[in-house]
Design brief:
209 residues, mainly beta, 9-stranded antiparallel sheet, two-stranded antiparallel ribbon, 43% strand, globular
Length: 209
Amino acid sequence: YYEAECYGTIAEKGYTDVLADKTFIGSAPIATASGLDAKAFDYSKLTDGIMSKNWKLGRYSSVSGGKFNGTVDLEGTYYLDELRFYVYEQNLANAGTNWTIETYFAEKWTTVKTIATNAELQDLVTQLNGNSIEDKFVSIDLGGVYAEKIRLTADAVSGKSLTLYEIRCIGAATETFIDYSNILSGKEFVGKESTMVVPSAGGNVFTYD
C-alpha cells in the first residue's frame, strides 16, 4: 500500500453518558407498592444515577406483565455509540423482551435496533472486573447514529415486571466535534518484525507476522 487513511471526527469533550441530566417520559403503567410514593418506580429513576439493591430505591419497574414505553429528549444533537441497561438484580428475566430502539433526527423517527427475545439479551451482556451493580450490564451497539431524541419500547416477560436500575447512553454532543479529517495524519503504525516476499511477477511485498 502507498498509504493508509482513516477519516473520522474527534469529540473535543470526549464521550459521556448523554442521559445523565435527562428524563424519560413514559406512557405505560409503572409498578406500585404499599407504603411507597406513587412514583417510587417511575421512569425518572432510569437516569437518576442511583443504583441500589434496596428494593425501595433507585430503580424503574413496570407492572407485572406490562410494557415499557419511554421517550427522552436529548435537548441537542448527539452522536450515539452505545446503550446500556443495568438490570435489576442482574437477572435478565427482569430485562423484558421485544425491545425496539428508535432515534429521532432530521424530523423523522428511525428504528436503530430490535431485540426480539429475552434470550438475545444474554449475548449482549458485558461483565467488567468487579462485582458491583455497575460492573455488569447489557451493551447495545448503536452504530454511531445521530439523534435528538430516543424512544424505547419493550414488553415485560410474562408474569414479571420489567425492572432496571438505570439506562445509560454513551455518546458525544456534535457541537463539540472538531472538523472531519484523516485522524491518522501525523501518526505511525507500529508492527511486528516484517517479512519480505518477492512474487514471481517481480516487485516486493512486505507482510507483518
